[in-house]
Amino acid sequence: PVENDLLVYADMPRWEIQLRFRRGVLGNLGAANNEDEFSYKYKRAFFVDWRVCDRLKMELFTFMDYVLDTTYPDKPKMITGEALLQGLQQVVQRPFRVVPFFDPGPWGGQWLKEVCDLDRSEVNFAWGFDCVPEENSLLLRFADMVFETPAINLVFLQPQKLLGQKVFEAFGAEFPIRFDFLDTMEGGNLSLQVHPLKEYIKEKFGMPYTQDESYYFLEAQEDSYVYLGLKENVVPEKMIGALEAAQEGDSGFDADAYVEKWPIKKHDHVLIPAGTVHCSGANSVVLEISATPYIFTFKLWDWGRMGLNGKPRPISLEHGKASIQWDRTTQWTKENILNKVEKVAEGEGWVEEKTGLDETSFIETRRHWSTQKVTHHTHGVVNILNLVEGREAIVESPTGAFEPFVIHYAETFIVPAAVGEYTVRPYGESEGSRIGTIKAYVRQEKLLTPQTN
Q1: Which of 8, 31, 92, 404 could make an S-S bridge to 66, C-beta 3.0–4.6 Å?
Q2: pLDDT top residue among 269 and 360
Q3: Is residue 118 a part of any domain in this protein?
Q4: Nearest to residue 261, comparing CAs of 286, 311, 296, 224?
């Protein structure tokens, strides 16, 4: 530990750091590069700055006399280090939400603006990050002051109670599941993309597990669709040649000739194991449920459009073509990863369904439809839920261990492993109506090998 008379630690959520990167008022650690491209500064921060700073923070936590919330430049707030530690100890005893953040994109839509009451003057919102603790923040109230702290601090300081002992042993102090929104209502297609297999991401990037994911369709129009898997009898060399020609600008890429296009509807659940070519289409809202190495998305084709900065977005064709699993064609996709819904339990006023993810993923998802109270249990593993149907629901402790917690449509909330038993039921405007939740957690049988594809 550093020798000091008084230690004041100034902290800031990573989303705020990214905003300052974009405004050109902040550079990377030890670099006078404020004016560099945002994409470069973000990747450098992801791989270098945040890793270095996190290690230092971990060493200093127990020595901090005071902690500064520097989220708002003109409104710093300060609490004692002991108050922060005690506050985070309380968080893991109850369900909670992190502070969401939203970002526009070249394919973004208009749904998030309305549902989440966002700035109507923005051109669109493409992403809504509702549970990415590495970059989200937490709000803690101390008397009349609301103190904002990076949510990653909770993961660092309370990993066993938050994640559960077995998950902590498998992943370390790292939150392994993320929920985010992809809004293409009145927007465009996402980029055609693929995620690397475990062996590839470990060899090339040193990551222990990869981004298996799924698309849960919160909303869809009659003409909504998803690109998923390849067509039968696709010739790899021909498809790669067409992608390379498109990248060089010689022609566009005819995605419909190579990638299967499936109609989708509200509440469909599409599973996307690493190595599967995929892309959500226009006029839908996806709740993306995935493992957390989200920076490793290899774009194959971006429909010939520019990013919001007027420049082409990077294409990762070399990494992408090394990751495509060519046997994942139409029939395989239909049989293995498209709406694999199975009823697993039911009771008075409720039904539980298993919806994914695919067999090789470490993430399990369960959907509950209910008009009555449904009992859940963490079984020592962190739960992440989203209210996918209904206006309101209330989360309660059967023993009164935490205060009742009200959630609203499309809100994601985290139930720490330490909570144990909890219930969810319709509330407020939804009383007497059916609600739906989707729950994700780490599969117990996958804990010893979280990096399995």
Answers
A1: 8
A2: 269
A3: no
A4: 224
Using an 8 Å Cβ cutoff, are 264 and 217 in contact? yes
User: Which pair of structure tokens corresponds to residue 340?
Assistant: 């694999």
Do both 316 and 347 map to the same domain?
A: no
Rounded CA-CA distance 267/287 in Å is 10
d(CA 315, CA 301): 7
Total number of domains in the chain: 3
Q: Average the pLDDT over 285-298 and give the result.
A: 85
- Range in 28-42, 120-134, 286-300 the model is least confident about: 286-300
Residue 351 and residue 247 share a domain: no
Q: Are 359 and 383 part of one and the same domain?
A: yes
Tens digit of pLDDT for each residue in 46-73? 989 999 999 999 999 989 999 999 999 9
Nearest to 288 by CA among 302, 263, 266, 269: 269
Computed from CA positions of residues 106, 107, 111, 115, in that sequence, does the dihedral angle turn out positive or negative? Answer: negative
Residue 403 has pLDDT above 50, yes or no: yes
**From CA 29, how far away is CA 45, in angstroms rounded?**
8
- Residue 408, Cβ density class (10 Å: 0-12 exposed, 13-18 middle, ≥19 buried): middle
Asked whether residue 368 falls in the same domain as residue 255, the answer is no
**What are 181's two structure tokens?**
């929104």
For the record, the structure tokens of 270 come out as 């599409």
Give the span between the Cα atoms of 97 and 55, in whole angstroms.
Answer: 25
The CATH number of whichever domain residue 290 belongs to comes to 2.60.120.10
Q: Which tokens belong to 7?
A: 């230690």
Q: Which 3 state secondary structure label does DSSP give 6? A: coil
Task: Give me the amino acid identity at 28.
Answer: N
State whether 149 and 197 are in the same domain: no
CA distances from 70 to 8, 150, 196, 250, 321 (A): 12, 11, 36, 49, 43
The pair of three-digit structure tokens given for residue 167, joined into one six-digit string: 């998950």
Q: Which of 77-81, 316-320, 355-359, 362-366 shows the lowest per-residue confidence on average (mean pLDDT)?
A: 355-359
Structure tokens at 370: 């209910």
pLDDT in tens, 191-247: 999 999 888 888 888 777 778 899 999 999 999 999 999 999 999 999 999 999 998
Q: Is residue 124 part of a domain?
A: no
**What beta strand segments (E) does 132-224 contain?**
137-142, 145-150, 177-183, 192-194, 213-220
**Quick one: which of 441, 435, 430 has its CA closest to 388?**
435
Domain boundary (274, 308, 336) is at 336
Give me the mean pLDDT over the 96-119 stretch: 96
CA 199 – CA 291 distance, rounded (Å): 16
